[in-house]
Amino acid sequence: MARVTIDDVADLAGVSIKTVSRVVNREPNVREATRERVDAAIAQLNYRPNTSARNLASQNSRVVVLLYDNPDDYELPSSGYIVRLQQGVLAACRVTDHQLLIHPCNYRKSGITHELESLIEQFRPVGVVIAAPLSNRPEIVDVIEAAGKPFVCLSPGEHIHGHASVVTNDREVSAEMTGYLASLGHRRIAFICGNPSHRAVGNRFLGYKDGLEQQGIEFDETLVMDGDNSIGSGEACADQLLTMTAPPTAIFAANDDMAAGVIRIAHRMNIDVPQQLSVCGFDDSSLARQIFPALTTIRQPLSTMAKHAADYLIRFARDKDATVEADIVPATIQSRDSTGPAPDISATSE
């Protein structure tokens, strides 16, 4: 079968070869309808540009690096987080014939600066997507910036002017989730904080406090526990909360893993979820749909965020005027079976 050429794509899409080239390279000033038509033609024909020839001509690689914290360092690593990151960056790379290089990075060990310098020198990427919590680490950001490579920070927790970042509305949507629990009649709503190295997770706690204030519920620090994002820490926090003299009727965990730990302890203590206790999390990982009952949570649009980050880097490689300060991709509440009306405390205590 003859190799599909750029001429074939142009004919099918009804555009010029130059327009196809601009779409493939994610150059600006292409109408969205035209871009979609060319992308559809590329997909239909399974067109693959000649990467080697283009690299030779440009003397530049077509590699996007995804830098993330090494999950092997955690008690129970959530592989779904990494997979969604990869899916998002790949979605941008495939259309533009770029390659994805994934690099798990242990920022706690010595020599990490030299490791990243060597990585950039060897592969000469068009840019680097830095996932949280690495995006919170100045030593990581500084070495990439010093190498002269563009980068985008994912969920840095706090936007730094002049640095491109893609975030979700952690604080606002967490306030919304707290309000949702209050709308079900819950007044004793507990919160399990995540690992402090994830600043964006810290914003979820601030959102919880905002939500209490908006609902006229007094903040009670005894209902706040410190977790570390793992299922085990969720279990430990739940054990403390559910053995209180006046336990909460709802527990909001800063991620799904800790929420799963809460549900496990509730089952062990014969506390019915959601009849006696409502539980919710954050992320909408695959775990949220696998546990019983299915977890009410906040869907973090991680794949979309990662795609936006890679899209920007690819555009910037062609157009140095391309800018993105803080791209906000909204999160949404996913209501499932783990939340329900608050129990009648007075009736159960008689």
How would you describe this protein?
This protein is α/β, with parallel strands linked by helices. It is built from 14 helices and 12 strands. The strands form 3 sheets. It has a 6-stranded parallel beta sheet, with helices on both faces. It has a 4-stranded parallel beta sheet with strand order 7-6-8-9, with helices on both faces. A two-stranded antiparallel sheet has the order 10-12. It is elongated. The C terminus is likely disordered.
Portion of residues in beta strands equals 5-15%
The spatial strand order of the largest sheet comes to 2-1-3-4-5-11
| Count of β-strands | 12
- The percent range for helix content is 40-55%
Secondary-structure element series: HHHHEHEHEHEEHEHEHEHEHEHEEH
The backbone outline, from C-alpha atoms, is elongated
What structural class do the secondary elements suggest? alpha/beta
Low-confidence stretches: 55-59, 346-350
Q: Which radius of gyration do the C-alpha atoms yield?
A: 23 Å
Discrete helix count: 14
Q: Summarize the biggest pleated sheet.
A: 6 strands, parallel
Measured distance between first and last alpha carbons? 79 Å
Mean pLDDT across every amino acid position: 87
Question: Brief overview, please?
Answer:
With 350 residues, the protein is of the alpha/beta class. The protein contains 14 helices and twelve strands.
Topology:
Elements: H1 6-13, H2 17-24, H3 32-45, H4 51-58, E1 63-69, H5 79-96, E2 99-105, H6 112-123, E3 127-130, H7 138-146, E4 151-154, E5 164-167, H8 170-183, E6 189-193, H9 199-214, E7 224-226, H10 231-242, E8 250-253, H11 256-268, E9 278-280, H12 286-290, E10 297-299, H13 302-318, E11 326-328, E12 332-334, H14 345-349
Parallel strand pairs: 1-2, 1-3, 3-4, 4-5, 5-11, 6-7, 6-8, 8-9
Antiparallel strand pairs: 10-12
